[in-house]
Amino acid sequence: MKLKAILADDEPNILRNLQAVIPWDELEIDIVGTAKNGIEALELCGLHVPDLIMSDIRMPLMDGITFVQKLREINEECTVLMVTGYQDFEYARSLMRVGVSDYILKPINYEELENCIRKLANEIRVMKLSKQEEQQKWGKMKNLAYEKIMQDVLMNYTEITPNTLLPIDNMDLETLTYLFAMIDVDNYSQKSLHWAEKERKLWNFAVRNVLQDSLTDEKLKFTVLQMREGEWCLLIQWDETDESMVQTKLSEIAVQLQNDVLQSVKLGISVGFFPVAVGLRQLSNAYRKLQRFMQLNLGKQESVLLYKESKEPADANTSLWFLVEEIVTGLKQLNRLKTEDALNRLKLLLEGLPDSSFARAYQMLHFLILHLLRELREMNTLNIQEEEQVWSLLDKSESIQHLIQVMVQLVALGLEGTNKKKNSELLMAAAKEYIRTHYSKDFGIEDIASSLGISSSYFSLLFKQHFGETFVEYVTKHRMELAKSMLLHSDKSITDIGKSVGYIERRYFTKVFQKFTGEIPSEYRDKRKEAK
Fold first, then answer.
1. Which of 76, 111, 295, 512 has its CA at 20 to 30 Å from residue 381's CA atom?
2. 146 within a domain of the structure (yes/no)
């Protein structure tokens, strides 16, 4: 790792000797500038942002002490090595109070100086590597938080307000727009039937990685969110005003994604997308529309589908879709009455269809059973034996009546697996305990869901139903309450308190705290200590 250094001394001979005698190349340090006084040194620091400064204490116009004091106003981290002719210990020690890391006495012992520079350079590199690792870790945490919030937005689990804690700096939520697409593995239910859970997760992980890698080369600000097994949403931040570019851009991306997934994991995918950019507040509605549009295209195979708003009255197929969605919602909400009512209305609708609609209805109902099966798998409601039993019945079905019987049995299995209130309460009690013991650590929904043995999407739904707020809202609120308590009842620094409640970077901790309380942490602490 190359470092940058500046040398400051009013004696030209010393500057020349310092450049010639010290093995800067061997130490991997570039001398980016030399200065004859503190004013010149300060200008060079603003221009080059050095890692190391070696400065004489006695210089004209601005001495070394004043220079370091001014330097700390613009650069708190730069390492300063001071050269002084004063051998008084107390004076040398006073240098440390103005932010000097070490000092060396004149006349200069160049061997001693080289050893000192080597030591400081090693310390700088250790510090920079540590900071890079923290920033990388924080970047991952920030991205993870962003993904969870966006998933809650798509699932309509959270309200978008001016104070929504999105980790996007300097962005106006009201004007934020996205290109929005949905990726679905063709015939996923059939293909994944005989995959073990671990194998299914590996396939889904592989596809998501391909989607991520494929888009990274495009230099786009994008997020890939897995909504359920075999299904992902793609969100691309879009600042262009030319709407005609949306369809062209997304069509190109769709074909690229199809080719990359087919080549890498040998799976065919279909991609559907909205023809216009979608605002943050409209994402949830857009997701529901696009999912329905994609799933109602029953014959899709490696298709690229452009969403079109239907102006026709709702037909039987659309009604079937909404009734099955009501069944799914009832099961997720552990609401037996709602589930059974939707199932009865579904049966009545099918029994009242004219003969001319039977062929299409049979195809549609067959698909909707697969859709329901996929949703129940997400909720971890069916075991492998029950799922295989449903598949066996489905393969033998030759009429709508047979399919209705399969649907009835599948709903019964779903109710048996999900309508256990005590079980959901135990799950959420375990989730609450997990959060309490992991406040200061890097964790997300996947970690908790995995420990509970349920899917991330089902965990998010249960959490919102049980606590009345999303996972991100709940964790943020409790982290802030803990931070408030620590600010009032401990002498820990703001940085250490932020880390204690899970925020590695002080700047972001301060930003979230201010949004939550209306004050920055230092103001919050000072005001309440003064009031005592």
1. 295
2. no
d(CA 431, CA 425) in angstroms, rounded, equals 10
221 plus 180 within the same structural domain: yes
CATH of the domain at 286: 3.30.70.270
Q: Which of 358-367, 380-389, 516-525 has the highest mean pLDDT?
A: 516-525
Q: Which residues contact 432 (CB under 8 A, 6 or more apart)?
A: none
- How many domains are contained in the chain? 4
Residue type present at position 327: I
Compute and round to an integer the Cα radius of gyration of the chain.
Answer: 31
d(CA 102, CA 81): 5
Neighbours of 233 (CB within 10 A): 22
Do 98 and 7 fall into the same domain?
yes
- Asked if residue 305 and residue 179 are part of one domain, the reply reads yes
**Domain end call among 361, 385, 419:** 419
Write out the two tokens for 99. 């932010």
The bridge status of strand 278-279 relative to strand 177-185 is antiparallel
- Runs of H (alpha helix) within 333-382: 336-351, 358-378
Half-sphere exposure of 222 (CA within 13 A, CB side): 23
For tokens 């690792």, the residue is 133
Task: Tell me the pTM.
Answer: 0.57
Residue 420 vs residue 443, higher pLDDT: 443
Domain range for 359 = 312-419
Specify whether 410 is located in the same domain as 433: no
Q: In which band, very low, low, confident or very high, does the pLDDT at 166 lie, cut at 50, 70 and 90?
A: low
Averaged pLDDT, 507-523: 86
Picking from 281, 309, 337, the residue at the C-terminal end of a domain is: 309
What percent of the chain lies above the pLDDT cut of 70?
85
Mean predicted confidence (pLDDT) in 191-196:
72
DSSP 469: S
Same domain? For 83 and 11 the reply is: yes
**Angle between the N-to-C axes of helices 471-489 and 456-467, in degrees from 0 to 180, rounded to the nearest 10:** 60
Least confident of 108-112, 206-210, 211-215: 108-112
Average pLDDT over residues 96-109: 76
Count Cα atoms within 13 angstroms, Cβ side, for 281. 7
Mean pLDDT of 25-35: 89
Contact 461, 332 (CB under 8 A): yes
Residue 453: burial class (beta carbons within 10 Å; 0-12, 13-18, 19+): exposed
418 has pLDDT over 60: no
Alpha carbons 214 and 167: distance in angstroms, whole number = 24
